[in-house]
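Hey, can you fold this?
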Amino acid sequence: MTSSPSRIAQATAAAALAIACSVGFAACTQDPARLPPTIGGGVNAEVGEQDPVKVLNLMLITRDGTTGFLEGALSTTGEDTLVSVSGELVDADNNPTGTPLVFEGGPTPVVTKQLSKLSVGNPYLVSGEIPVGLTVRTTLVFTHAGEVTLDVPIVDGNNVDYATVTPQPTNL
């Protein structure tokens, strides 16, 4: 039994339509509006081997370009402490400027299975040239987890998304 050219054409058209539909429907599942929401413009990292510390949504917020504070959260399954923070401005070409920023604050305890917010307790206040839109190559040092260096974005604290975020020291 031989197939006529019209039956072959119909089968080919049906196969092409099936492929087109499967590609089209698969693309529908990648709709960004259907993806789980992610937190704002900070950076994330994981530091250490045993009971690693997770650094979540780390950013430097400034309202005037000369002072600011670190915002973000820390989490671990063990116990740890953020003991120091240092950093320097990185220019638009991703080159360190050589001018260190001054970080004052801390230490920040990282409590088991709880979020430790960096802007609460003994917040890290930052001073120096802090232009919005650039990054600060920032090194975080933990008692047990070790250290990590991240390019932390500098965000405008006058932006409506960050206008209500302020450091909340508990030692006053």
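Oh, and this one too while you're at it.
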Amino acid sequence: MLLSTDKRLQPQIISSLKWVAFAIDTLDVGLLSEVFTLHLDRAQTLGEAVAFSADDVLKYFSGLLIEKDGCVQFDRPYIKEYLTSSRIRNSPVSAFSFTANDAQIHIAKSCLDLHLQCNPSDNSTDSAIVEQQGEEDVSKLKSYATKNWALHLESVPPSSWPPEIVQAANLALNIRSRSLYSMINSVTDRPFILDEAWLNPLIYTAHINAYRLTDMLISEGLGTHEYITQSDLNAALLSAASAGSYEVVQLLLEKGASVDVKTERNLNPLVEAAGNSHLEIVRFLVEEKFAINVFSKALDEAAREGNFEIVEFLVLNKTPVTKFALKTVAGCFGDSPESLECLKLLLDNSKGMKLQGALCKAAYGECWKA
């Protein structure tokens, strides 16, 4: 099958096989045709690429790829295994061989090159960049590249990052750049303020759990730039805690981020983690004795969101039960076994507390078992 592929198109075919094997999202035929059309190893511009029809692209992969339920996949599961195995390296089709790291670096570089090509550095004003982002008609491949180049790069140890990728990654993450704005703008349901992240790329890398890129920005930024400050680290810690980026939380604390800092919006990493069901981060911050002064706020936030496992953890770690938490669990989550068990725990640890408010809440919410 591999020997019968069109030799003139071999670079595109190999590139496409890497994409199908290790893409973060399942490829459809339209996206595969864009990948196949734009042979990024030759640094073609979008206008120079020779178009391949989405209807025709699979014919170049006869016996290798098929379309099923709108998605492109290998014709047989063993094909990916063979392409990444040691067996192929000494065979007549060794040119098609690649490792997971090879493929991830290839996709990361392809995406990063395209992303920077579509978001060049220039002298545009902030308002012009914002306006142009709203007007642009983005293709599937452009959108994929913007959202995922960092995630592909994250999957490879930094020791394997070529220097040109490190340089390009730093360029893509420049503050107030068209590139960074595009990346932040691609995040749906952002828990952070876009303009703040545009001035602090650590907020973005922390949100997507990009540990290695976060470390790169801190290590290189502190040595060569002035824009990474204590407040930048603190804001990134909030972002990481909110998103559940456990390793990034640990990294930022090691680099000097503060848990107990007061922000303009009274946000705190422990409270953010508790409200978003990130028990691993809550456990780490509590056990390491961080943010002791906001344990009760974290309990209230966990109760508000119905995160009973976190409520239980905080109470068992000697967080005082609050009236708000008791009333919220009693009246807002019905008579489910989980809420009743949580309520019992709160009651058992609420000695001396008046319970009329919780009783009224339960009655108002028709939580009769409570």
